[in-house]
Amino acid sequence: MDFNRYFEIGKGSIPIILSVPHGGFLKPKFLLDKESGVNIADKVTYLAAKHTLNLLKQKNIEIFYILNKIHRSKLDVNRPPKATNSLNQEAKNVEIAKMIHGLYHQQIKKLTEECISLFKGCFFIDFHGFTKPHQEYPDIIIGNIFGNTLNIKQKNQGKIKGENHTYWGHHQIVHELSKDFTLDDGLGLNNFNFAYSGGYITHQFYNKDQINAIQLEVAKYIRKNPILLRNFISDLVNAIEEIEKKSLILTHI
Hints:
Blueprint (H helix, E strand, L loop, with lengths): L6 E4 L5 E5 L24 H14 L5 E5 L25 H26 L2 E9 L9 E4 L8 E3 L15 H8 L5 E2 L15 H4 L7 E9 H5 L1 H21 L3 E3 L1
Parallel strand pairs: 2-3, 2-4, 4-8, 5-7
Antiparallel strand pairs: 1-3, 5-8, 6-9
Helix pairs in contact: 1-6, 3-6
């Protein structure tokens, strides 16, 4: 069985990778439902990613990407494969589910290795969604394990008022998205970002040389509102354009 059909994978011409693990919609019958954990998808993240890729292509920009098509009720690739909230551990064919989980991470590894080989650096975006528990919460939270998945700084980047960091990729994302939305950059521990500091995927890049990685959490009300979603995608595309411009002047921390 070709399990790769459950992922959509593409290679790019600039050192940026987009991962969408929770936007899947397929529910293959051979995978039993999970017995614990979140069983709803991060709605619209898959479609938002597709639209982003199309807009970038219109600008002759192609990034690396991997989109998971399997619904979260069946498989959660952002949890450890041995966890009950990742897959049904009691299923007779549990090894098949683990194989699919492993393939997603193998593909991430291949994409990051190719990106580093070609460009000497990589910016990884893991795109998720969350529901704001109350109005005071930011619209967007950027998880990076409080700076521990940010290992590349920009060269010759002067400080901008109100900012004290120059992390390549992260800087451009914060700058563009904050134009339209309230945002937490994930660099300081607080009540907002602790739960979204980075999941299983983001943790794979903890203090990993030549990679900056973020978990991009976007509020549901933005994803469900066509106008706000359009603004978000436009800001993300602009950020990726700016990240590309800085990709040739990197320095490691």
